[in-house]
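Collaborator request, handled under Task 6.
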Amino acid sequence: MNSLDRPASGPAPVDHRAAVAAETARFVAYLEDVDLTTPVPSCPGWTLADLVKHTGSVQRWFSALLHARIQEPPRKREVDLRLPERQEDYPDWLAASATVAAQAFAATEPDLPMWAWGVDQHARFWARRMLFETLLHRVDAELALGRRATVDRPLAVDGIDEFLVNLPFATPFAPDVAKLRGPDKAIRFQATDGEGCWLVRLRPDGFGLDANAGADETADATVQGTAADLLLLVYGRVHHDAAVFTQDGDKDLLTHWFANSAF
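Structure tokens returned to the collaborator:
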């Protein structure tokens, strides 16, 4: 069996499990000798300490779900986070959270059938979701510290796909997603730095990613940018009017999309 966690769709396999460890290590490295009370502009109301606590908690929560091999939505979220009392110990705790995740991955085959709130009903869903929770909050930390946020291109491409594939199922915790409807409208996200094209179709009864659409498919609105910038765009870390993007077509449609697609 291939050890790579494979996305439900998308151009290339990514080792999500290994990437969780790598992204967590990058995150922890940025926390050395910084003030954890620093505000995080991309997560209003949060400090770096809140960001670290959330990321580590997600890793430990998802790890508990993997160990339990859940087959239905969990009824409770009580997990022993082992959160240290002192905030200065949070970075080491986050590093340890990645170790907890690695142990859960080692105990769970990626292809094991499991309940998941998104499309892919297998254990690999949780590794993939954990990766992009970790990566985006690592980016949040970089932005809070005044650093230039960078995302490796293969991860960006996979992350855009993961976001768009699962977004239609996010209404339980992102209710505005239910407003993403339209009279047969289409939005294209086009990478300018290599392979990567995603066409989202809005219908009167909902929306979804058209995995079979090509780059020449007609769209009512198109946003073009590098894969890394598009990833930050769909997650709301960059505004669609930013200079790094080229837009064509129905701007009201784009405004409607970004007003209701917050994850």
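The cover message to the collaborator said: "The CA atoms of residues 109 and 216 lie 38 Å apart. The first helix runs from residue 16 to 30. Please let us know whether this matches your experimental observations."
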